[in-house]
Amino acid sequence: MRSLKDTQFSILELAPVRDDKSIQFSLHHALALAQKAELLGYRRLWLAEHHNMDGIASSATAVLLGYILANTHTLTVGSGGIMLPNHAPLLVAEQFGTLATLYPNRVELGLGRAPGTDQVTMRALRRGRQETEDQFPQDVLEILQYFKAPVPHQRIVATPGQNTHVPVWLLGSSLFSAQLAAKLGLPYSFASHFAPRMLDQAIKLYRENFEPSEYLDRPYVSMGVPTVVAQTDAEAEYLATSAYQRVLGLMRGQSLKLKAPVKTMEGLWSPAEKMSVDNFYAMAQIGSPETVKAGLEKLLEKYNVDEFIFTCDIYDTDKRIENFELLMNIKNS
């Protein structure tokens, strides 16, 4: 069984927007976190694509990746993920091929099958296009080819993109992408940071059906884990109320901006809403370093994943960076 020391630690960043700060502040904080992640030795930092959400500033994912790449030196960065139904495969290949050409061996492309937004915004993103999620497998294959050397008589070539061999991941919260990742021999990341219900089933399906490929000779699984780590359990539970309020806003169709922590959630949510938030955060690790270490060891014992990719919705930016410092201390202890 793998130990925490042998497990890769990574970060999934959504550039959260605080209710009292500007979007520019959030983007600058995303860079500060990336620079800290580089110093701490995190394996990778990914940015997630979401649209029409006032509390998430990473919508122009490739643009923000360029900003982070330009101001870091060794950190591997990528998308977690690009929501492929929103984009033409050629444009994705050109964008990430450009990044990989400018910053060799530091860029990854995680691909998601969902639009990452509501129906109205989805139509705005796809204006004039008829692509659906059913085209996802073909679109993935198209992108993989764009990153390779062009074959004879290939009519469309990604420039930049060709010969960059950008590593591609598939992301998912259901069984579809797990099956496709297994078939194509690609690494797989499960979105258990917000949709943990099918985690166990998806991992088993992926591992049992994995076919070795030019990309991987064995399955590689990453799982999303929400975290709030502080010096004590009590402090962590207090800081976590910002995350609870954020999910509550998502469920109610309200603002997703990070709100200051509160002493108690009593009176802010109904019993049914509390249950829904608890289900959303079923994999969350909230507490002191000792508490979180024990929790991560239990997850590792149950799922034996290769990598944890952590999210964090702490209001105070210094405390948010401390969260990732404490996580790396847990790994190295």
UniProtKB/TrEMBL annotation:
Molecular function in Gene Ontology: oxidoreductase activity, acting on paired donors, with incorporation or reduction of molecular oxygen
Q: Where is the Luciferase-like domain?
A: 21-300
Q: Which Gene3D superfamilies does this UniProt record tie to the protein? A: Luciferase-like domain
Superkingdom in the source lineage:
Bacteria
Report the InterPro entries cross-referenced here.
Bact_Lucif_Oxidored, CmoO-like, Luciferase-like_dom, Luciferase-like_sf
GO CC annotations? cytosol
Which Pfam families does this chain map to? Bac_luciferase (PF00296)
Sequence similarity: To bacterial alkanal monooxygenase alpha and beta chains.
Q: What is this protein called?
A: Luciferase-like monooxygenase
Annotated organism of origin:
Acinetobacter kookii
